[in-house]
Design a protein that fits this description.
Bound molecules: fe (ii) ion
Order of helices and strands: EHEHHEHEHEEEEEHHHHHHHHHH
CATH class of the largest domain: Mainly Alpha
Helix content: 40-55%
CATH architecture of the largest domain: Up-down Bundle
InterPro entries: ADH_Fe/GldA (IPR001670), ADH_Fe_C (IPR056798), ADH_Fe_CS (IPR018211), Alcohol_dehydrogenase_Fe (IPR039697)
Strand order of the largest sheet: 1-9-6-4-2-3
Domain Fe-containing alcohol dehydrogenase-like C-terminal: 209-405
Pfam families: ADH_Fe_C, Fe-ADH
GO molecular function: alcohol dehydrogenase (NAD+) activity; metal ion binding
Shape: globular
Oligomer: single chain
Family: Belongs to the iron-containing alcohol dehydrogenase family.
Number of helices: 15
CATH topology of the largest domain: Dehydroquinate synthase-like, alpha domain
Strand content: 5-15%
Length: 405
């Protein structure tokens, strides 16, 4: 079967009603952070809690946010101890140090929470919003739509381009007792405002740019081929793939390249919109046990697994993988749909290599004997497994881990 043009392959047309949700206000562009005071005031904020991490603080970004808020007449408190890959216990520590330190019923006088940083800071900000109106620990609400009360309003300012956490209503935490990662998904975790300022990513080191960039690509491709994909999410997902394929190498190799940083930030932002509505799949399900047991950072875990996952998933939707190839910039004219889909997988593998990510799980210290132990954890993420275009067996999951080793 040869295809004169992948663009002429038939699209799936939805035969059901589907929703499309995003935070009510989104600001994108160089200098967007300057408007945080206006946005916070618009929400009626008088006393804001800034939630961030030591690296963002050292980079001077959280102090800039504080200045901007204070210039708008908003007083602030800051929690800057967010650790990478936050845990359930870490959320409780943050709560005790901030909202919980106030008399019962008064969350420290705060009336808004500002997450400034990568996914870890924004997820912790979401958890603190949750905890401002619900008893802890946050693990009580692992699952979908299990949060009973809406907490303090959230504003997010991402400082990396990848997690999409500024858009999503999800927050992921390590559960030390169960040695796994799990997530709270609730519309009550949507931010009121997402402020994406690509200039804030100019100083992000190459390795973090690469890992978070491939996390964003994973979001885009997984949501594009997802069971829950819709025509709305397909628009964002495909454009995200195109932007990331065109800009991630530049953002990694020339950190100060504002055009590349902007393209990558927009790609990541679009991918966040896509996963908010279409979800992720097998790659994320398989990445979580690696984070839980070996503390492999989320983006890195996805990057190591993505090519083999796509190779496995490819046959479930050849037409969509062929379009992925096209969006990645591959020459697909005249190829069969199968060959074009395979080009898509290869293009992803090449991008992961070009941005300097490790070639396999072996290189990040995972023991080969451990792979079999990850299978159950991966398959237990039913929300993601059910959303994967191909229904994986335990044997198939183990095979994908081995191919990623
Ligand atoms: Fe992710």
């Amino acid at each position: 079967m040869t295809s004169p043009s992948i663009a002429r392959l038939p699209e799936r047309v939805p035969d059901t009603v589907y929703p499309f949700r995003v935070p009510p206000a989104q600001l994108f562009g160089a200098g967007a952070v300057e408007q945080i005071g206006v946005e916070a005031k618009r929400l009626g904020t008088r006393h804001a809690l800034i939630v961030t991490d030591p690296g963002v603080t050292r980079a001077g970004i959280s102090s800039r946010v504080r200045e901007l808020l204070e210039a708008a007449g908003i007083s602030t408190g800051t929690y800057e101890e967010v650790q990478p890959e936050p845990t359930v216990a870490g959320v409780e520590r943050a709560y005790d140090a901030t909202l919980g330190a106030a008399p019962a019923g008064s969350p420290g006088g705060y009336d808004a929470i500002i997450g400034v940083g990568g996914g870890s800071a924004m997820d912790t900000a979401k958890a603190l919003s949750l905890r401002s109106a619900n008893p802890g620990p946050v693990s009580r609400y692992f699952g979908v739509e299990l949060v009973p009360n809406t907490g303090l309003p959230l504003i997010h300012v991402p400082t990396t381009a990848g997690t999409g956490a500024e858009i999503t209503p999800n927050a992921i935490f390590g559960d030390e007792e169960r040695r796994l990662k799990a997530g709270v998904v609730s519309h009550r975790l949507f931010a009121q405002v997402a402020i994406v300022d690509p200039d804030l990513t100019l100083g992000v080191p190459a390795t973090v740019t690469a890992a978070s960039g491939i996390d964003a690509l994973t979001h885009a491709i997984e949501s594009y081929v997802a069971v829950k994909a819709t025509p709305h999410t397909d628009l964002y997902a495909l454009e995200s793939i195109r932007l990331i394929a065109a800009n991630l190498r530049g953002a990694v190799t020339r950190g100060g390249d504002r055009a590349a940083r902007t393209g990558q930030a927009l790609g990541s932002f679009y991918a966040g919109i896509a996963i908010t509505n279409a979800g992720t799949g097998l790659c994320h399900a398989m990445a979580y046990p690696l984070g839980g047991a070996y503390h492999v950072p989320h983006g890195m875990a996805n990057a190591l697994l993505l090519p083999a996952v796509l190779e496995y998933n490819m046959v479930a939707d050849l037409a969509k993988m062929a379009r992925v190839a096209e969006a990645m910039g591959e020459q697909v004219v005249g190829l069969s749909v199968y060959d074009a889909a395979q080009r898509g997988v290869e293009a992803v593998r090449r991008l992961c290599r070009d941005v300097g990510l490790p070639a396999g799980l072996r290189e990040v210290g995972v023991s080969e004997d451990a792979l079999a132990h990850f299978v159950e954890g991966a398959l237990s993420a039913a929300r993601l497994i059910d959303n994967n275009p191909r229904r994986p067996t335990p044997e198939a999951v183990l095979d994908v881990y081995r191919r990623s080793y």
